[in-house]
Amino acid sequence: xxxxxxxxxxxxxxxxxxxxxxxxxxxxxxxxxxxxxxxxxxxxxxxxxxxxxxxxxxxxxxxxxxxxxxxxxxxxxxxxxxxxxxxxxxxxxxxxxxxxxxxxxxxxxxxxxxxxxxxxx
Length: 121
Prior knowledge:
The chain is mainly α.
């Protein structure tokens, strides 16, 4: 049961203290403007924190993919017919294959061991 008497007539010392410090409207009459302002500020801070964490997660994902030397997978917009997309993807695969083979040749060239000048007997 809610006490509808004046806070001074109440036996609740917390109610009296709230009345004397000007905070009684939060308890007696619902949410005050100060309470609503504080709530809005807290929600704004929460939204900013979530946005910052999301930005950090996006950046971390980019760094991990860059370190793994793998591109981020982005859904492609279907801008062409299936035949044109097949040709585009085939060309992309051909270029990737050429780049991979060139890297393999370069690595093989760097790791080639010197040959012996003579045969040990």
